[in-house]
Structure to design on (391 residues):
């Protein structure tokens, strides 16, 4: 399949209807920012958030979202949050390597137990997998699912409902590697490495869907690989503009707080004294030198594909399930031997200006009507006050 280079003029955004979005998330730093953007984007209608274990435990992921409720009044938006799977399908992910030291990066909650109990009353009792099946069954071909974590919830939905993919409009996934430059192991991207069996189930189902619907012009899955966000990361000068240039509001302050550790590792390491680590997982990212927003890129590819996607290729993709080094490796049929089973649209190049404009619209406007209060200089944001002490 030949590579597609998109140079056509962008469509008039005012003519595009709102997209009905479900975000499946492991509630890490970039996930939270992506959810904020989805709430603010004029063409996004975020209707549900399903939570899966990944960057943090399922429990902590739910608490992270509850912390976000306090910032953006998610409760007033009446967006349900569904707890999903708390472990991979087959075997537990080895948290001792390589992400055990990173788990605190994503710990956003500094609430008291009483406050946590109060907020978690708003978490739905329905399991995320059952909620996903119910929503797409009741309104088929309406929802785009944006996957920002491991694919465990989606895989189990497919296992329980063999027609699940036919009922989904599209699934846009932050996952996999183009060139085996991993961020979890030397060859594997984190989400695919965390639960490769889940990725295999989803990719295999998409292959079968392609066989059953040969006249469809686009695969059911869209993959935004890790290298795209690394190689096409944003400049730190833009980040400075985003968080420091007036108007500065609660959301820009939150953006700054969330990215404190990321800035320390990925910015200070090359602007000041170089940082070296024995953790191979981190070294590749540290050397990237850019402001990396992989989950946000994925969301925008779902919301504005006609504007942000510049190059893509439809290919046959699977994931390696075994091997001392290769477990979780993204296996792409670049030679086209599987053209009858094209299951994934792989994003190769995006328009960073579109990403920048969306971030400006989301974080640089006057304080959102979602906000309950505006922080003052004497009232620091409480979300990750304990974060630095854990490093």
């Amino acid at each position: 399949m030949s590579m597609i280079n998109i140079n056509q003029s962008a469509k008039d955004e005012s003519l595009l209807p709102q997209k009905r979005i479900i975000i499946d998330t492991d509630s890490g730093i970039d996930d939270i920012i992506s959810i904020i953007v989805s709430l603010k984007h004029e063409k996004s209608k975020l209707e549900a958030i399903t939570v899966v274990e990944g960057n943090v435990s399922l429990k902590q992921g739910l608490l992270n979202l509850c912390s976000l409720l306090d910032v953006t009044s998610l409760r007033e938006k009446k967006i349900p949050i569904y707890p999903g799977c708390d472990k991979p399908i087959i075997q537990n992910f080895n948290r001792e390597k390589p992400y055990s030291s990173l788990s605190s990066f994503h710990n956003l909650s500094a609430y008291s137990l009483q406050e946590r109990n109060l907020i978690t009353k708003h978490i739905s009792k329905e399991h995320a997998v059952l909620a996903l099946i119910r929503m797409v069954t009741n309104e088929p071909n309406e929802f785009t699912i944006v996957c920002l974590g491991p694919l465990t919830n989606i895989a189990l939905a497919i296992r329980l409902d063999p027609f699940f993919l036919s009922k989904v409009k599209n699934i846009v996934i932050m996952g996999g590697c183009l060139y085996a430059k991993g961020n979890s192991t030397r060859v594997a991207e984190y989400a695919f490495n965390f639960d490769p069996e889940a990725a295999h189930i989803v990719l295999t189902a998409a292959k079968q869907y392609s066989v059953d619907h040969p006249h469809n012009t686009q695969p059911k899955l869209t993959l935004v690989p890790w290298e795209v966000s690394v190689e096409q990361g944003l400049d730190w000068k833009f980040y400075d503009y985003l968080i420091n240039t007036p108007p500065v509001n609660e959301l820009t302050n939150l953006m700054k707080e969330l990215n404190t550790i990321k800035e320390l590792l990925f910015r200070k390491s090359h602007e000041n004294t170089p940082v070296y680590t024995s953790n191979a997982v981190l070294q590749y990212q540290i050397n990237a030198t850019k402001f990396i927003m992989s989950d946000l890129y994925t969301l925008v590819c779902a919301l504005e594909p006609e504007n942000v996607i510049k190059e893509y290729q439809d290919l046959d993709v699977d994931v390696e399930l075994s091997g001392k080094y290769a477990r979780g490796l993204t296996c792409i049929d670049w030679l086209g031997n599987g053209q009858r089973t094209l299951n994934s649209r792989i994003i190769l190049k995006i328009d960073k200006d579109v990403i920048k404009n969306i971030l400006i619209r989301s974080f640089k406007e006057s304080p959102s009507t979602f906000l309950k209060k505006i922080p003052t200089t004497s009232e620091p944001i409480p979300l990750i006050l304990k974060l630095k002490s854990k490093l």
